[in-house]
């Protein structure tokens, strides 16, 4: 029996984004999977997704755990596994991964001079750490890169759990109306779309087509649900509201979501649950939440990204400008939600980028581009976000550079050929962008002088400073050659 450990110290959403990789590993014949988690919700998800696996909750000593610094690893954890999969870049997780004595470590691991990142992930993670707006590679695909031929899909339970009696009784009060779920919480306040915006969207939707609103969230988030209900009923007194906040387990949520005609949420674990089921959803991103990194990994999804000049920001640092949460206003969200409610078909299941872009609702961003809407496409290469609707103006250099680094990282990780996302943009837009700015001046200087950061900075300047770059393909080829020279890609035989 091959023993495989999965170190998953982050929250539920991060675990779900790694579920494609874990599902591929767990499916190997003769493999026994054990998940080490710091969040009880992760172990609940493990029991539903991988019922044959074992789950171990890391205790309060986890932040000080490890062995590389001379401290012993916590007692009671498995030792000498055949394979340990580390699903975190957190230095504490890296240290713990090195202390457990696994014969092989997949993912970030300790090295003589710091964390060692696998080559398949290095370019993507370097882009995210240098300037997150450059990353543009969904974290699902970052983790998929560790396992060749890992399918581009989130794991699903072998069978959907039944809905609990309390939730079943509550949903029965809908009077036969379609159900629109609103998840109002998020693990950080800057990720949370305000209740006022949720309520404004709900009222406008109800006027267009009546439905029963269902509020989701934890017991601690129930105050948000009550605030939403009060604001919503001021605009639509006759609108039914069903409050499930604090009344559902994770199994209940998985059982309830298939009944939704639409889910509206911020960047949360519930968003990823809905994506795994293919539920139509509108996901709103602001602050540290970035749709290109953690957007819903599902075909029937639209993302609304707030574009604050300082974003995407770093989570955990104090911010005196929380106004970014309201940049994606409910007025901007309304056409997207209406399109989803009207039952727009999911994009065809061919390779991403084949054929013309999927048409989106006809709306234009307000002056200053306070937000941008995106449609999720899933294909053999993984997830791509395409503008929804296609951008009416030439791309700026930040968007162009982000697209190039995404394609370079995808190729370096073996996830597929370049050009999958670029076909949704016009070559003339890219040509104009490169001509107007000979140098991508927003590319930040390496913050700590690391080799990966220096390489990425050099690649960016090399690719974007040449006056003779006329088409995106030539730009991409320059990036690819430099990525190969820096060791991110093997030379073709």
Overall CATH class of the domain at 165-346: Alpha Beta
Order of strands, widest sheet: 10-9-8-11-12-13-14-15
Number of helices: 17
Please identify the structural class as seen in this structure.
alpha/beta
According to DSSP, the number of beta strands is: 15
| Reported CATH architecture of the domain at 165-346 | 3-Layer(aba) Sandwich
Overall helicity: 25-40%
Give the integer mean of the pLDDT values.
76
Overall outline? globular
Largest sheet: 8 strands, mixed
Portion in strands = 15-25%
Low-confidence stretches: 64-71, 344-367, 419-475, 488-493
Radius of gyration over C-alpha positions, nearest whole angstrom? 23 Å
Describe what you observe in this structure.
The protein is α/β, with parallel strands linked by helices. Among the domains are: 2-116, Rossmann fold; 165-346, Rossmann fold. Helices cover 35% and strands 15% of the residues. It has 17 helices and 15 strands. It is globular and about 65 Å long. The two termini are 37 Å apart.
